[in-house]
Design goal:
- By secondary structure, this protein is an alpha+beta fold.
- It has five helices and eight strands; from the N terminus they run H-H-H-E-E-E-E-H-E-E-E-E-H.
- The chain has two domains: 1-34; 54-199, no CATH class.
- The longest helix has 32 residues, at 2-33.
- It is globular, with a radius of gyration of 31 Å.
């Protein structure tokens, strides 16, 4: 009887020990699986959720046509050609320029302004303002544009950390980073190398 009671007591102790150990193991596993609420979750700032593929965005900016300076438009082209061929949405039509805009699925914006002579109404300057969502996207687009423009125009005439200039007749092209604080972006400017000739048209 004494032996049976001792055996029963020993069995209860072993069973309780096994249950306690099992609970501890489960608790430890649960704690390991659950991150602390104050731990930082780092998201990639260049993720596709907030940024486009910047090489593809550059192709959207310059357009599909290899003709002209950009987007199939050359200096000296009439404004009517711009209005007929530009695929972006027109948002401005003034006495000295017409403006077209495009917004990506990630809410990045491209604004293209075509400036023209007041008399002949022919294109004499093109600017592109690109509004981006992150510093990483800005650097990636800068790199894509720098590579492509250097292939097209040759070694830059001027190369600074936030501004690059290329010149190859008939165009002088500049790219500038215009990011300020949490507003990110680039500005492209295309001007003719022979302004006198263009002004006479």
């Amino acid at each position: 009887m004494k032996y049976s009671t001792s055996l029963r007591y020993l069995l209860w102790v072993c069973l309780l020990g096994a249950i306690t150990t099992g609970c501890r193991t489960k608790t430890t596993t649960d704690e390991e699986a659950t991150a602390p609420t104050d731990s930082a979750v780092i998201h990639d700032p260049a993720s596709s959720a907030i940024n486009s593929n910047q090489s593809e965005l550059f192709n959207t900016i310059v357009g599909t046509s290899d003709e002209g300076v950009i987007r199939g438009i050359a200096f000296g082209d009439p404004v009517s050609k711009v209005k007929a061929t530009e695929s972006f949405e027109m948002f401005e039509d003034s006495l000295r320029h017409v403006g077209f805009t495009f917004e990506t699925d990630q809410l990045e914006t491209i604004d293209v302004l075509y400036y023209f002579t007041p008399t002949g109404r022919t294109i004499n300057k093109i600017t592109v303002d690109i509004y981006l969502n992150s510093e990483t996207a800005t650097r990636q687009l800068w790199s894509s544009a720098e590579k492509r423009f250097t292939e097209k125009y040759g070694t830059p005439l001027e190369a600074k950390p936030r501004r690059i200039v290329w010149q190859k007749n008939p165009v002088k092209t500049s790219m500038e980073e215009v990011s300020e604080g949490k507003d990110y972006g680039l500005k492209l400017v295309f001007e003719p190398t022979d302004k006198a000739m263009l002004a006479s048209k």
